[in-house]
Design brief:
alpha+beta; 2 domains; 4-stranded mixed β-sheet; two-stranded antiparallel sheet; 6 strands
């Protein structure tokens, strides 16, 4: 048993693979700006005007999704399309695939003595709670026996990072 003054990692959801990740790229037109000074010894020579974009939403669990646009108001349309993509992903994430344990997996669960997430042993009065069946909400696949609290901390992270390619 560890003393209460020890710090232990318990942000278990950060150990999971990302469900979704967006990679984006803009194309711009460089337009000359005649004689514009914007500060001490800083002369603006050209302005980048977005003319198009592409973004890919890739996933460990679902098919990739690509959006491409070329034309006026590319930046505004990018934001609009990103919000549409956000809603599409939320709809996917809200569909939880139920767990379907095989006999072998149920036996593994019953025999488990250690939480597959925190690696602590199971006990009647453990501070992380009783033993439960942990599974992936996207595939329904059984991941292992876990403390109730550890299982709850392995929640689906509903943030989608967006990386811009330069």
């Amino acid at each position: 048993m560890e003393p209460d003054n020890y710090i232990k990692f318990d942000d278990f959801e950060k150990k999971q693979k990302l469900a979704f990740c967006i990679y984006a790229d803009f194309e711009c037109l460089c337009v000359d700006v005649p004689n514009k000074i914007i500060g001490d010894n800083i002369k603006l020579k050209s302005k980048h005007i977005p003319s198009g974009f592409t973004f890919y939403n890739v996933s460990t669990y679902f098919p990739s999704h690509k959006v491409t646009y070329r034309g006026p108001n590319a930046a505004q349309i990018f934001l609009k399309e990103l919000l549409i993509e956000k809603q599409r992903v939320i709809d996917i994430m809200n569909k939880v695939v139920p767990m379907n344990l095989s006999r072998n997996e149920e036996t593994m669960f019953q025999l488990a003595t250690v939480c597959h997430i925190c690696k602590d042993t199971f006990s009647e009065n453990h501070k992380r709670g009783y033993k439960v069946r942990d599974h992936c909400h996207f595939t329904g696949q059984f991941r292992g026996a876990a403390h109730n609290l550890c299982n709850l901390k392995m929640r689906v992270v509903k943030k989608i990072p967006v990386f811009f390619i330069t």
